[in-house]
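Q: Could you fold this chain for me?
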Amino acid sequence: MAFHGLLVSSGFSALAIREQVACLARDRSYVSAHIITTARPEKEHAPWNVVTKGQLEEMGMTVSFIDFDVGESLADDVDLVYVCGGNTFHLLHSIQCSSAPIRQQIVALCDRGGLYIGSSAGAVLVSPTIASAGEVHPDKNKDGVVDLTGLHFIEQHVVPHYVPSLDGEIIAFREKYSLREDEVLLLRDGEGLYVHDAVQEIVV
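A: Sure. Below is the predicted structure, expressed as structure tokens.
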């Protein structure tokens, strides 16, 4: 499986990121998209989710909100999956508790030429583990998640919303988990990382 994804820190806040997605959608004839609302308590009513839905619809796609918390999963023919930000621990917990093989569904999405977009928590999710979510500007692990294994579509551990004031927490995180500097991927707001065919390209 070759992961095909766009990892972002703050959704489509940057024009270059929106243009990248629009170009991919046009070139690959995407017609449908899911927005995964699980990580945010407001679900489909979260302002960023509403805005993102409109932006994807402007690109010509039919968009549906999907929530793993209520047993929903990915359609077999969806072209694009956007996993929104929020609480990373809850997002992983919901996937772990789902009766649907969510990871395998994302693998199938990429295999048929679709695109995974992960924003903030959705970007952390593709790491080997989501441990960074508990160490750097940490989320609360209200679900008591013990197994922090992520989807592991890339080898780096993603840290979204990077600003220099987080450097101390990042160094402590690396030391705690014996990680090299190049094993931690820092994403600034307004910045994206496009991953395709084992190649990573920064989008700003």
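A (continued): The radius of gyration is 16 Å.
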